[in-house]
Amino acid sequence: MEREEGSRVVRGGVNKGISVFDFVLRLMGFMGTLAGAIAMGTTDETLPFFTQFIRFRARYSDLPTFTFFVVANAIVSVYLLLSLPLSIFHIVRSKAKGSRMILIFFDTGMLGLITAGASAAAAIVYLAHKGNVRANWLAICQQFNSFCERISGALIGSFVAMAILILLILLSAIAISRR
Amino acid sequence: MEREEGSRVVRGGVNKGISVFDFVLRLMGFMGTLAGAIAMGTTDETLPFFTQFIRFRARYSDLPTFTFFVVANAIVSVYLLLSLPLSIFHIVRSKAKGSRMILIFFDTGMLGLITAGASAAAAIVYLAHKGNVRANWLAICQQFNSFCERISGALIGSFVAMAILILLILLSAIAISRR
């Protein structure tokens, strides 16, 4: 009986460690997605030359995929922020099970959302850089240089958040199975 | 003690039900991704008119994103097929825990892969249909009509597989927590 108690204490300690790690990861993911949304959402480049009728200007909202990227990042960012209190609750009560299931549920959904946003944006960024000869789509990065740097950089935060969400799901699953 | 035994039997029954559902879902996901990979991988349209130098031909491999889509679908498809024996093992031994953790681990990775492939391809399919005025990318679907229908249809299987993988992760998590 005593031995079981000891084993329980050890298990509780490991689960507490997992919960602390979970909290730190969520904070990192929150910052990553927030940075991605801001970097993409503020992208706006106006070229120094213009004709009589047209000013050459590139904004993230010119491409619907980038709008989706910003929205997806903003949603995941807010979700990760809102999940922080629950993560703290898990540090205090390391045996909680139901609330961990809720987190796995939403984490999985958010993983799908952020992956979709980041991958779709990456496909378009690739096109902007390389173009496609067969479809006769020209690379626009030659003209809009700083625009392209911004949209490429904005992807990083999202992909980091993607890796973090995968880790979070696994950590929650481990914590539940150790109970 | 007897009551606990009864509760265990009921739990085992529910877990068995979850495992059967898990098996059916994996089979559906396998067929969805296989169909997606085949539909995309065999896309090839040659236009009936040609100039002296050029035959107008559209293949999935003209766009690197579609190649990635086919590879991602093939990998997930093979994985889901290989995971079927483990799923059957779970129907027989509904209390298994470690092997369910392994499945959650790989399912989450595969969810990321299939979501990335499907979303990136969807972004390009959207461009092919609508084009983009600001970037001066023309819609290619006016010329390559059946090509566009194929690449749009191929996405469906992937998105179904995406939903299935999310469900599989949740089912495994529920099964582990019920143990």
UniProtKB/TrEMBL annotation, chains A, B:
The keyword Signal does not apply. It is found in: Cell membrane. GO terms for cellular component: plasma membrane. The chain crosses the membrane at residues 20-40, 66-89, 101-128, 154-176. Residues 16-163 form the Casparian strip membrane protein domain. The keyword Membrane applies. InterPro entries: CASP/CASPL, CASP_dom, CASPL. Pfam families: CASP_dom. Its main location: membrane. Keywords: Cell membrane, Membrane, Transmembrane, Transmembrane helix. It is a multi-pass membrane protein. Belongs to the Casparian strip membrane proteins (CASP) family. Homodimer and heterodimers. NCBIfam families: A_tha_TIGR01569. This is CASP-like protein. It comes from Amborella trichopoda.
